[in-house]
Amino acid sequence: MSVTPPPTKEIADMGSSEKKTKYWSKVMTRYEASGLLASEFCRRHRLSPPSFYRLRRILRGDRPAERLELVAVAELLEIY
């Protein structure tokens, strides 16, 4: 079953963000059921990988990673 997204104008004309959320939720459900890597799913369905990943994070409710702090190994050894 193809999940090729509607043309950009059609997406804009979908109206409410509720409709867009519903549409992309269905796309993500199909992706998860496909067993494909995200990159392959995007290629087969002509989806933009950056948009796919961004929308997947949004739908999951993921927050951007917080800044990580590098710690020297010697500091870690002193702790233990």
Written description of the protein model:
The protein is mostly helical and 80 residues long. The chain is 62% helix and 0% strand. It contains five helices and no strands. The longest helix is centred in the N-terminal third of the chain and has 18 residues, at 17-34. The model is unreliable at 7-11 (pLDDT under 50).
Shape: elongated
Order of helices and strands: HHHHH
Taken together, the total number of domains comes to 1
Residue-averaged pLDDT: 77
Secondary-structure content class? mainly alpha
Largest sheet: none
Low-confidence stretches: 7-11
Summarize the model shown.
With 80 residues, the protein is mainly alpha-helical.
Secondary structure topology:
Elements: H1 8-13, H2 17-34, H3 38-44, H4 49-60, H5 73-79
Descriptive terms for the model:
80 residues, mainly alpha, 5 helices
